[in-house]
Amino acid sequence: MTTTQLITQIRKKKSFLCIGLDVDLQKIPKFLLETDDPIFEFNKAIIDATHHLAVAYKPNTAFYEAYGIKGWQALEKTIQYLNTNHPEIFTIADAKRGDIGNTSSMYAKAFFEDLAFDSVTVAPYMGKDSVEPFLAFQGKHTILLALTSNQGAFDFQTKIIADKEVYKHVLETSKTWKNSENLMYVVGATKASFLGEIREIVPESFLLVPGVGAQGGNLQDVCKYGMTDNIGLLINSSRGIIYASTEVDFASAAAKKAAELQSQMTAILEA
Amino acid sequence: MTTTQLITQIRKKKSFLCIGLDVDLQKIPKFLLETDDPIFEFNKAIIDATHHLAVAYKPNTAFYEAYGIKGWQALEKTIQYLNTNHPEIFTIADAKRGDIGNTSSMYAKAFFEDLAFDSVTVAPYMGKDSVEPFLAFQGKHTILLALTSNQGAFDFQTKIIADKEVYKHVLETSKTWKNSENLMYVVGATKASFLGEIREIVPESFLLVPGVGAQGGNLQDVCKYGMTDNIGLLINSSRGIIYASTEVDFASAAAKKAAELQSQMTAILEA
């Protein structure tokens, strides 16, 4: 999916909501555990109930790997279900990968070609030649960890190198990499006040923003400092939506939570 | 496996060789492609031919994920084969994971409990709460990316924060994390001259050292600057060993290459 197509979807749906599909078998409704593939059945129900409210879905691969082969199969079925039934949805493999060149190429192949995700999250620590193999895939997007939503972000990301923070070096340096037009960035909603300075460095890039809701980030602040003429934001909510209820009404409860966020987004977009 | 047990194995085998099981179906002998599980058959033959020469094996997960379900199954069979037949071998999941707390816990569960690896490589960019969930597993080891072997290491890792390089902050800060005794570090052989200063910060920790051979690193230099009284080094070679031949003699050719490195290690250990 191209960035232009993503922007069109955001304007059409009046939503820049991304729903995180982080499926924990201990948190989903018990009756689903009796089905053949509880992870996929959960995802399918959530997608069916919320696809008109969201422009993106983001499975975090950790939650699938934790269940071994069955988890990996559920991930495959989920992305196939999305690509088959909702090709207009932007898909994000939240995998936070990154390795030396030939190895990053294997990861890129896995997520962009075999699983056919539109994008994948990538860690920047190993630098240029660990990220460029992802950027080489045309029509695909690489979402680089810049300033993450967790407390540990202050361990290294906000430390000062020369005259600026590490994450700003990541932003600036990444712009010099080949095919950098395929880059997006992860910026946590818990760091909304940093967004003004981030926009000075990457005025147009899409930002994937986790941390609204459960982690304490505020939607209005994120939009105030981070929104561009083309929106430039995907706001992710995972637990706040998918675990709204653990009963048989879980999908409609998820839709209700998604609708709440989506209506706030509509108000912001129409303001 | 405890660090003491690892040191005992190194002294017994007179080897601190780690063999990287980075299986690319385009590089393995063609006749293996006709078997039911070419990746596992390749690994099994390499392990059978080299297990007396190496103390550790390191599958890089990218090469398994690239083949989807079949790749993941081959990874499971490989670690099971190692744990069943060679429980004295130290196993490393080269996964370079790292995420916010609850998500890192899922990765730790996947690699330490379900797959039963002794250790996993983890990226430091997201800081303390992204690494501590791995450190919480007793008897398991977390191998933190410090100074990697690739050119991109100079993009961020060697930049100066205040008075020292980012990777030194990673080393120093990680020592303050809970259960930091379970830490090891990745330091590329291509950066051997940095090892003296690294040893000032982490005098005892084991270092996993990739980059000898194909990437140009030198074994003697690594040992000169990095070896401790308890050795403290695992030297990894992947392509240089496992792709020594692409014919039917691939396993014996791999053993020959492994034996060359192991005999150099023996000489160093006996010097």
TrEMBL record, chains A, B:
Domain of life assignment: Bacteria
Q: Any one Gene Ontology biological process term?
A: 'de novo' UMP biosynthetic process
**InterPro entries according to UniProt:** Aldolase_TIM (IPR013785), OMPdecase_type-2 (IPR011995), OMPdeCOase_dom (IPR001754), RibuloseP-bd_barrel (IPR011060)
SMART domains, alphabetically?
OMPdecase
Q: Which CDD domains match?
A: OMP_decarboxylase_like
User: What's its EC?
Assistant: 4.1.1.23
Q: Name one Pfam family in it.
A: OMPdecase
Give the UniProt keywords, A-Z. Decarboxylase, Lyase, Pyrimidine biosynthesis
Keyword Lyase present in the record's keywords: the answer is yes
This entry's Gene Ontology molecular function terms read: orotidine-5'-phosphate decarboxylase activity
Pathway the protein acts in: Pyrimidine metabolism; UMP biosynthesis via de novo pathway; UMP from orotate: step 2/2
> Belongs to which family?
Belongs to the OMP decarboxylase family. Type 2 subfamily.
Q: What is this protein called?
A: Orotidine 5'-phosphate decarboxylase
- Gene behind this chain? pyrF
